[in-house]
């Protein structure tokens, strides 16, 4: 499956998530419109049309900026066709080109089409400049997050993996993981993708999150058995220790002792923080701050 096609399918699976992200506001309802437009029918695999109250969102996903016909002309063409087809009732048409890959430094990225007296403007989303935080919140957007702005691409991919691992529904988790592997290919080598986006790690993360939630629930219940609670806490410690070893290597005895002495709440925070660790010093600094 092509990268553009993958984005289109993700948008069709959760149109509310994509429309909310592109428009920058929370939407409750969005539907997917047909991609065939009037006149000479055209259908583009990288295009998705989403209808929200009062607005039609046209998203064009592009791996390469170069196109025939040129993208500015295509956006103007789509705009006219959409207005002809959906002019009653009157709707606003918001258009976005979502660029998945940064073009060469000499490329001029246009945000309007000009010819004679006609000027048509649209928006360009440069994914490599986008804040990854909003993309990490919804399963359908998680695969795009791996291509977002970051100082450490590998650490960002690990955050994506951790979020995918928190999805408990097996089908949704597997689907999101599959798309994440496809899009990650635009930035990462196959070896890194295979190392960080592994199904067994996804399952382990799900178990880890469940253990933490069950521990919190039992903490609120009166009359809980202290031994059983400690047993579950120890399971959480073991998972965090395994994740640390994978991330920064073998721990010193003193560091392991400190981690084993953490509460479940502290373990949860460490489990999130370790995704950004760059080496043993990161763990030592984190522990010293506690």
From TrEMBL:
PANTHER family: SLL0800 PROTEIN, SLL6017 PROTEIN. It comes from the Bacteria. Pfam families: DUF4351 (PF14261). This is DUF4351 domain-containing protein. InterPro entries: DUF4351. It comes from Gloeobacter morelensis MG652769. Residues 229-287 form the DUF4351 domain.
